[in-house]
């Protein structure tokens, strides 16, 4: 029994916000600095009140439509998010209700920050391969703009909002060839949102904090290691994958990872220039874009990779 992606979908809120727009809104930055350090030219920012479940719902509906699967047939929903609508219930439960999908089906959130989608996909694959579930929705959805300190120019220019989703179904043929999930909690200090809820109030710091250079070095190392790991497990040479979709954090991280793996730059799917870093949504957003514009075709090998706070990282090699 394998788990196979049968549909993809995505959702981006509102209109693109350019680097110049951010500068005009008072961020002490420039298009030249952001583009040269990150490759980011614009991002989408949700209007106040727009939630991760709303974005995730639209992405899920598009994925179901492509797969030709009814919401009522979904027996598992996993949502990767660090910006859930509420402390609880989970965003997955909210999406299950909004979709009108089967009551009683399993639904839960996964918190692995920017690795969240790859974690959720790895978990869903294991549910399906065990035979306990047969049709899953795996969603990455974020309104990261809510946890940004707009006075911290070193972080606020990097992120954006959005959602991506896949339908994963039991199949006789692959499907997912290999996946790996990892974490190193000793690195929790280099990327975090260190606030807490106490007495009904957020105490401490509710905004994203990051040691950018430490994150950069860590990300490039683990993204190349975990890509090599899943390729080795599947018996596939890294330079023979058809498409590489790393977490869309920074164009320099994407380029360095591809170079280390010997993957030609033309095989790397890039959305960071137009979406910024959408955390758990970045990989499924990029996957959906490349499927819908015809670059990724059935039978091709696609390598998905995530890395993020925790620190967490992981990869999935699949035959689309
Ligand atoms: O999902 C994982 C998410 N995290 C990442 O992907 C982050 C990985 N790290 C990075 O991408 C890079 O470290 C950054 C793009 C965040 C920063 O680049 P850097 O080359 O490491 O710059 P820096 O933090 O060392 O800052 C260099 C200069 C500083 O000025 P001084 O002290 O040299 O005068 C900063 O104040 O750039 C300044 N700076 C900015 N200037 C204009 C920092 N942010 C900005 C900005 N606009 N937005």
CATH architecture of the largest domain, please? Answer: 3-Layer(aba) Sandwich
Which molecules other than protein and nucleic acid are bound?
oxa(dethia)-CoA
Q: Can you tell me the overall shape?
A: globular
Tally of separate domains:
2
User: CATH superfamily name of the largest domain?
Assistant: Thiolase/Chalcone synthase
Number of strands: 15
Order of helices and strands: EEHHEHEHEHEHEEEEEEHEHHHEE
**Strand arrangement across the biggest beta sheet:** 1-7-6-4-5
Number of helices: 10
Query: In terms of structural class, how would the helical and strand content be classed?
Result: alpha+beta
Strand content bin:
25-35%
Structure description:
With 320 residues, this protein is of the alpha+beta class. The chain folds into 2 domains: 2-172, Peroxisomal Thiolase, Chain A, domain 1, CATH 3.40.47; 177-319, Thiolase/Chalcone synthase (Peroxisomal Thiolase, Chain A, domain 1). The chain is 33% helix and 26% strand. It contains 10 helices and 15 strands. The strands form 5 sheets. It has a 5-stranded mixed sheet, sandwiched between helices. A 4-stranded mixed sheet has the order 8-15-14-13, with helices on both faces. A two-stranded antiparallel ribbon has the order 2-3. A hairpin with a 3-residue loop joins strand 14 and strand 15 (312-319). Helix 3 crosses helix 4 and helix 7 (212-234) runs parallel beside helix 8 (251-261). The longest helix has 23 residues, at 212-234. The protein is globular. It starts with a strand and ends with a strand. The model has no long low-confidence stretch (mean pLDDT 97). Bound molecules: oxa(dethia)-CoA. The active site is at 114, 247, 277. Pfam families: ACP_syn_III, ACP_syn_III_C. It catalyses: malonyl-[ACP] + acetyl-CoA + H(+) = 3-oxobutanoyl-[ACP] + CO2 + CoA.
């Amino acid at each position: 029994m394998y788990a196979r992606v049968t549909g993809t979908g995505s959702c981006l809120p509102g209109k693109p916000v350019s680097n110049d727009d951010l500068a005009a809104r008072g961020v002490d930055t420039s298009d030249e600095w952001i583009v040269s350090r990150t490759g980011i030219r614009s991002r989408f920012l949700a209007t106040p009140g727009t939630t991760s479940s709303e974005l995730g719902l639209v992405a899920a509906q598009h994925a179901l439509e492509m797969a030709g699967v009814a919401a009522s047939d979904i027996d598992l929903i996993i949502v990767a998010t660090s910006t859930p609508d509420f402390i609880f219930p989970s965003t997955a439960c909210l999406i299950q209700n909004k979709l009108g999908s089967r009551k009683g089906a399993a639904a839960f959130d996964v918190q692995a920050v920017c690795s969240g989608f790859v974690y959720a996909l790895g978990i869903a694959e294991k549910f399906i391969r065990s035979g306990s579930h047969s049709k899953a929705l795996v969603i990455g959805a974020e309104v990261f703009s809510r946890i940004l300190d707009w006075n911290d120019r070193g972080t606020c220019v990097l992120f954006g909002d959005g959602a991506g989703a896949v339908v994963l179904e039991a199949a006789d043929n692959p499907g997912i060839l290999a996946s790996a999930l990892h974490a190193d909690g000793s690195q929790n200090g280099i990327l975090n949102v260190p606030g807490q809820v106490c007495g009904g109030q957020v105490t401490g710091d509710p905004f994203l904090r990051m040691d950018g250079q430490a994150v950069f070095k860590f990300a490039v190392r683990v993204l190349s290691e975990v890509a090599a790991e899943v390729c080795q497990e599947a018996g596939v040479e890294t330079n023979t994958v058809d498409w590489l979709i790393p977490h869309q954090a920074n164009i320099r991280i994407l380029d360095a990872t591809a170079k280390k793996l010997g993957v030609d730059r033309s095989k790397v799917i890039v959305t960071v220039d137009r979406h910024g870093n959408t955390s758990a949504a970045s990989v499924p957003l990029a996957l959906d874009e490349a499927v819908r514009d015809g670059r990724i075709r059935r039978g091709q090998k696609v390598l998905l990779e995530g890395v993020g706070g925790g620190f967490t990282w992981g990869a999935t090699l699949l035959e689309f």
